[in-house]
Amino acid sequence: MKLSPCTVGLLALAAAFVDAGCPASCTKLQEVMPSCQNKTAVPAQDLCCFSAPGGQILQTQFWDTSPATGPANHWTIHGLWPDHCDGSFDQYCDENRQYTNITQILESYGQTELLAYMKKYWTDYHGQEESFWEHEWGKHGTCMNTIDPACYKNYKGQEEVVDYFRRTVSLFQTLDTYAFLAAAGITPSSTKNYSLEAINTALRKAPGRNGRNATVECSDGQLDEVYYSYNVIGTIAGGVFVPVDATSQDATSCPEEVAYLPKNLSSAYPVSSVSSSAAPSATLNLSPTCRPNGI
């Protein structure tokens, strides 16, 4: 695979961090090579530094219109998924870590600002945010091998949950789908449809995507979801995310002409309050608070 100049720069950035805590048993190659680019099986001792088999990471977003979720001018978070490199995936990988107290875990680590942000941008269309977060963590977060508890130095109970939600939010903050589409003149409308080609082109041209395709999903011909694909250099919590094209299995469900409807905010379920005075901010400082063994 020929790497773009941008990706080469990211590799150099990752290399600068390889001595920041990666286990001595990890090879330098695994520490700086993007996931899914290995030609041979990854040695077991390197799996705290290299995402495998779930090396195709998808940041997925919703555009829910009725019931509506989130602000009128912003998409919302669905999750962060570790697909296999061929587009298949594992799920519910650790029965012992199917936590049912995500809010409590985040609060115990002082993540009140993160929770406030999630209450605004990671909402459930039935108003069941806690259950939604539990589902995303249990189904997808437990399958991310570089945030397995065994990969942490001086592991503290459930700190990998914090890393999962912080990383999901920090990546989402770089992917303002509403702004990407609006820059191409594609805004929600009750009277106008848009070509699928125009939508795909706008997302390819989005800042930081390096011309890579996203996967666009529709329901009854209406735009309702986008998946952004990445490979990762290093760990989920502290690594570098490299944009890649969606796999062949991520085919769109959209017609050639797509409706992009405005959100019916009067249909939204009330968002429950956070037990904190922290107000949601448009951006958060989400530098990793703890790096698992790895970069």
General description of the model:
This protein is α+β, with helices and mostly antiparallel strands. Helix content is 25%, strand content 15%. It contains eight helices and seven strands, in the order ααββαααααβαββββ.
Radius of gyration (CA) equals 19 Å
Distance between the termini: 23 Å
Order of helices and strands: HHEEHHHHHEHEEEE
Task: Tell me the structural class.
Answer: alpha+beta
The percent range for strand residues is 5-15%
Number-wise, the strands total: 7
What share of residues is helical? 10-25%
The best one-word shape is globular
| Low-pLDDT regions | 3-25, 273-281, 288-295
Give average pLDDT, whole number: 84
Count of alpha and pi helical runs: 8
